Amino acid sequence: MDTKERTEIFINVHKGLRRGLFGLALRIGELDWDEHGEVDAVGEELENMIRFLREHAADEDHVQIPFLEKRAPGTTQQEQDEHRELESRLDLLEKHWYQLLRGENRERLGYRFYLEYNRFLSRYLDHMDREEKHLTEAFYRHCSDAELDGAFQQIVERASPQAMDRMLAYVMPAMNPSERRQFVAKAATAPELLGKVRSLTETAAAPAGRETVSRRTG
Q1: pTM attached to this predicted model
Q2: Nearest 5°: phi and psi at 189?
Q3: C-alpha neighbours within 13 Å on the C-beta side of residue 103
Q4: All domains of the chain, ordered by start, with CATH?
Q5: Of all residues in the chain, what percent are helix, strand and coil, respectively (each to 5)?
Q6: pLDDT in tens, 103-122
Q7: Which residues contact 9 (CB under 8 A, 6 or more apart)?
Q8: What is the C-alpha to C-alpha distance for residues 218 and 202, in angstroms, rounded to an integer?
């Protein structure tokens, strides 16, 4: 469904997730397992990505899913089941990464991890696709734009400063200029977001376009 015709629900955060997930897949594939500094850097990025995935799932589990279930009971059962499955996959991914670091043949174990990570990525892409189609459709059928904006505000209010910084660092560079302008306008209703959003909007823009972005976002 083209969610740009109404209040955005998943577009921005899913763009950020895709950007982070695909970028990490490339780094794992290119990694020299004998270079400990590179391995440590990828491990840090993997840990950050897993935190972002879990924080996003928690936002859905504690805000968006109950919000929709209250208006349309039973609508989100598949999403809840998939969240439990994906959390189990994340637990295993994390466990296997640390096993890899303790292993003797990192090249062999690293290739296995690369395949496992990409299987997770494939499954997660399916999950996001379902949310963008079926769950978005249900939100639009049962909720007004004002109600959806209220749910967004709840997500902002429950986020720790660290979680908010992480989300913005993934999401802002993934947006196109129009989406950034709209997000800045939306962030104006959440003062704790606005300064960070403006700063990251400048960083996300190409150097030649920073003045234009700044002017457009006020």
Answers
A1: 0.85
A2: -85, -5
A3: 17
A4: 3-143 (1.20.120)
A5: 85, 0, 15
A6: 888 999 999 999 999 999 99
A7: 3, 64, 135, 136, 139, 148
A8: 12
